[in-house]
Write a structure and sequence with these properties.
Layout (H helix, E strand, L loop, with lengths): L5 E6 L4 E6 L4 E5 L15 H4 L3 E3 L2 E3 L5 E2 L1 H7 L5 H8 L1
Antiparallel strand pairs: 1-2, 2-3, 4-5, 5-6
């Protein structure tokens, strides 16, 4: 069975993505580990990072960086999300 896809994203000031998936689960994905790699270095600019949007079930940015939707689902934190939101926003 295919993992759920992203239906909504809210980028934060701390390089995290607040995600809502097609099964209505919510998760928080930390992008900070990606910021040193190739095409993702551009995401270090927080104003650019905050231009994240959903396209075809995953998160993408204007210059075509994207993150595999399976990675977003499997690696996002889904426990205690309301507490996490208080910490990162």
């Amino acid at each position: 069975m295919m993992n759920p896809r992203v239906k909504n994203v809210i980028p934060t000031d701390k390089y995290k993505l607040i995600l809502t998936f097609t099964n209505d689960e919510q998760g928080i994905y930390d992008c900070s580990e990606l910021l040193n790699f190739g095409v993702f270095k551009e995401l270090r600019d927080i104003n650019y990072f905050k231009q994240a949007s959903v396209l075809h079930g995953t998160v993408t940015w204007p210059n075509e960086q994207d993150i595999c939707p399976d990675t977003l689902y499997l690696d996002s934190k889904k426990n205690n999300i309301s507490h996490e939101l208080l910490v990162i926003i």
